[in-house]
Amino acid sequence: MPSQPNAHRASAVPARSFQRRRSAIACALACLLLLAATAAMAQGPLRTDAPDRYVVQPGDTLWGIAERFLSEPWRWRQIWQANPGIANPSRIYPGDVLVVDRSSGSPRIRKAHGGGGLRTVKLSPRVRVEELDREIPTIPVNAVAPFLSRPLITTAEEIDSAPYVVGFPEEKIIAGLGDTLFVRSITTTRNDRWDVLRPGRAYRDPDTNELLGYVATSVASAQLERLGDPATLVVTRSHKEVEVGDRVRPAQDEEPIRSFLPRPATAGMRGRIIAVLNGVSQIGQFDVVALNRGRREGVEVGTVFAAYQGGELRRDRVQARRSGWNWRSETPADTSFWFGDWELDGWNRGRPDPNAPLPLHRRASRADGQFIVPDSRTGVVMVFRTFEKVSFALVMRANQAIHVGEVVAPPRSL
Predict the structure, then answer these.
(1) Domains of the chain and any CATH numbers
(2) Minimal CA–CA distance to 165: which of 156, 153, 176?
């Protein structure tokens, strides 16, 4: 009987030793995971070849600057550290010095002290001086300037209710710069500047066939001379000849795109490229595209999508070479005889007499004779103008030619 406690203690020692070893191993693994996570956090979204210091140049854009530091420029806000000790801390100007600050363990981009402070502007008598070193815009403004106010997406109701050109003096059939327009009907207005627009093609959702709106392209700008029905307007700027039926609307001044920062589309948001606004067939960098998603779906100015191609069915040529079916070669002993992957899809020759005992000339192919093309990223687009059901986006990056119909979705990390 006295030996039993000793035996119990002897068996307990290896158990406790095993538990200690297991705890030590678990602790070591946890430390390794913590170190790996810390290293990943320390690197963050920075590129491996990111500069430690960059001087902002005239002509730079926020997107271009972000690409110097990040593989995914839309993540700029995650690492940008606005310096509260200088004027306009969230804006960047030519001459500002950007540095990588790793002092906090997680890298941040900030302005160097002494750069981007208060600026001195010299004033001369009788000369109006504007600030020459305007803040750096988010995207190339010259690429989107023609699309900030024109064209626009409108509805059939808006087209029907808008004042329209009904004619011209002296029985003209078109009008140009300096010509007078008769417009029905403008009886009250606070605006004397008007845009002349021409309703164009309809945009439809390629998946649901829903009518998303009509494109109204800019034809001319005009000055209101007299209210009435018809009212009279004079063409002050002409892009095309004005025709009877063109619509007019009060001119609208768009705010310059300078103050927003890109942000990725929300999870689950998907759409398609439905048109390219400059009429090319293959879309490249700085082309403007229309998307079948707008304010209704939560798209905002600055929303970033990645464009993807793939998903279509293609013929498997390898399987096609093995599609010569011979019914004589199969037996009931072969499982493919009962559960085979062949599909009868036609006749090699003219259809035989229905009284023929066997379909000697039937054609068959394997059911797996097609495959789905994996999707791949073709580029990145950023929305700069939104409508209710449509938005305009600028192609910021093109890995290859992008095409109308490609899917846009939140960008996945590379």
Answers:
(1) 33-115+130-136 (no CATH), 149-250 (2.40.10), 263-312+374-409 (2.40.10.170), 317-326+336-369 (no CATH)
(2) 176
Q: How far apart are CA 392 and CA 213, in angstroms?
A: 13
Q: Which residues contact 259 (CB under 8 A, 6 or more apart)?
A: 91, 138
Classified as helix, coil or strand, 371 is strand
Q: Which residues contact 189 (CB under 8 A, 6 or more apart)?
A: 224, 227, 250
User: What DSSP assignment string belongs to 73-107?
Assistant: GGGHHHHB---TTSSSTT---TT-EEEEE-TTSS-
Q: Are 93 and 56 in contact (CB under 8 A)?
A: yes
Task: Kindly state the greatest CA–CA separation across the chain.
Answer: 129
Residue 72 · residue 147 · CB < 8 Å: no
CA-nearest of 267, 300, 307, 306 to 73 is: 306
What number of other Cβ atoms are within 10 A of residue 367's Cβ?
Answer: 12
DSSP string, 110-132: EEPTTSS--------TT-----S
Phi then psi for 315, rounded to 5 degrees? -80, 130
- The two tokens of residue 335 are 């499982």
Q: Give me the average pLDDT of each 10-residue run along the chain (414 residues).
A: 48 52 50 41 68 90 89 83 55 87 80 56 42 70 78 90 94 92 92 93 95 93 95 94 95 67 90 87 89 96 92 71 54 52 55 54 59 85 94 94 93 74
